[in-house]
Amino acid sequence: MFGKDRRKQKVLQEGNQQDASAISQNVDESAEILPRRPFTCVKIPGRGFGMVANRDIKKGELILEEKPILTLAPIDVDNNAGEQHVTVAGIMKQYNMLSRSDQNKIKQLHSVSEPKTILGIIQANSFVRGVISEESVLCIESSRFNHSCRQNVSHGYVAEKDVERIVACRDVKEGEELLTCYAPPFDSYSSRQAVLRCHYGFECDCVVCAAPPEERKQNDKLREQFKMLDKRIPEVGSLNPKEGLGLVADALRILEKLDLQLAPLLEHHYYDGFQLAKGCGQMTRAKLFAKKAAEAVAICEGETTKHKKLLSYSKNPSLHINGT
Ligand SMILES: [Zn+2]
After folding, report:
1. How far is the CA of 203 from the centre of ligand 1 (A)?
2. How far does the centroid of ligand 1 lie from the alpha carbon of residue 44, in Å?
3. How far is CA 171 from the centre of its chain?
4. How many of the other CB atoms lie within 10 Å of CB of 31?
5. Which class does domain 11-200 fall in?
6. Cβ contacts of 152 within 8 Å, gap of 6 or more
7. Basic residues compositional bias: what residue ranges (predicted)?
8. Ligand 1: distance of its center to the CA of 193 in Å?
C-alpha cells in the first residue's frame, strides 16, 4: 500500500560505536544548492533549511530526481528474535567509504539528536526504498523538503531508475515553500503529531493541524473512513467485484474531499478500480481506470515500464493478467 512516508529504519545500538561521537558543527551551512532549478534551498525561520519555489510551478511538474548517496539494507543480526536491523557499524562502514565532500553534505542535514550524529541524521532523513522494501535511502537534496500534512509535492523512490523523485502535486506560486508529508497521511491529527514529535522532534502547525477543532475533527473522520475503505476494498473486491468497485468510488470521493492530491495513492486506487471493473466485465470503465492509473504513474515515476503497461491496458484490458 501507500508507503511514501518517511519510515524510520530500525537501528540497532551497538555500544560505543564510532557514531556515538558527535559530529563537528564546523560545517558550511550557508551554502545554497541547486541554482537554476525550480527551487532554492534557504534558511526558514525556526525550521532549519527548506526548499522554496523560485518560480511558479505547475501541478505534475518534475521538481527533482536524485540518486541516493547511501542505501541502507537491513542485515540479520539477531537470530533469536529473527529480526533484521540496519546496524550502526553498517551505516558507518558505508559513510566512511564516501568522499570527504559527500560526508560534508550529509553532515549539513538535520539530525534528530543534539549534538548531531550520523545516526541521528539518517533517522531524520532516510526514505523507504519503495513501497514494500525493507531498505531505505538517504538523499541530500530530497532531505531538505520540510513537512506539511497538506503537502504540495509528493516524493517516491523509483526502483527502475534508482532515484528519489519529487513532483509538484499542486500548482505552487513563486516564493511558496515546497512541502512533503513525513507522517502517514491517513492518521488522525493526534497520531500524526505523535509520529512527528517522536521521529522528527517537532509539532506540526500546518494549515490542517492549525484548523479549528471542529474542522479538524471532520478531517480526522474522513481519514478514518478512508482507512477503513482501503482495508475493505481487497477483502470485498475479491468476493464481489461489483461491490468492491462501489467502495473504490467511495474511496476516490473521500480523497477528493480531503484534497490530498497524492498521485501514488490515486494510482493505487485507479488500478484497483481497473481490476474490479474488468472483473465485472465493465470494459469501458476498466479502460478509463487504467488510463487514469497510467497518468498517476507518469507523475510518480515518469515513463517507466509500469506506465507503458497501464497504457496498454487502457487500450486493451484483456492484456492484463490477474495479479500483474
Ligand atoms: Zn500538520
Report:
1. 8
2. 17
3. 19
4. 10
5. mainly beta
6. 168, 169, 170, 172, 176, 178, 179
7. 1-10
8. 7
Percent of the chain with pLDDT over 70: 82
Phi, psi of 198 (to 5 degrees): -70, -45
Q: Name the band, by pLDDT with cuts 50, 70 and 90, for residue 85.
A: low
Using one digit for the tens of pLDDT, what is the confidence trace for 262-289? 888 899 999 999 999 999 999 999 999 9
What spacing in Å lies between the alpha carbon of 138 and ligand 1's midpoint?
23
Rounded distance from Cα 15 to ligand 1 centre (Å): 36
The whole-angstrom separation of Cα 139 and Cα 114 is: 21
182 C-alpha to ligand 1 centroid (Å): 10
| Cα-to-centroid distance, 204 and ligand 1 (Å) | 4
- pLDDT, residue 6, reads 44
Distance (angstroms) between ligand 1 centre and the Cα of 41 equals: 21
Q: Alpha helix (H) ranges present in the chain? A: 88-97, 100-107, 118-125, 189-195, 213-239, 241-258, 263-279, 283-301, 305-315
Q: Which residues have a Cβ under 8 Å from the Cβ of 287 and sit 6 or more positions away?
A: 313, 314, 315, 317
pLDDT tens for each residue of 209-219: 999 999 999 99
From ligand 1's centre to the CA of 3, what distance in Å? 18
Compute, in angstroms, the gap from residue 29 CA to the centroid of ligand 1: 27
Classify the C-alpha dihedral 249-258-144-41 as positive or negative.
positive
Distance 190 CA to ligand 1 centre (A): 10
Tell me the domain boundaries of the chain: 11-200, 213-319
Please, what is the Cα angle at 95 between 93 and 99, to 5 degrees? 120
Neighbouring residues of the ion ligand 1, judged by CB less than 5 Å: 149, 204, 206, 208-209
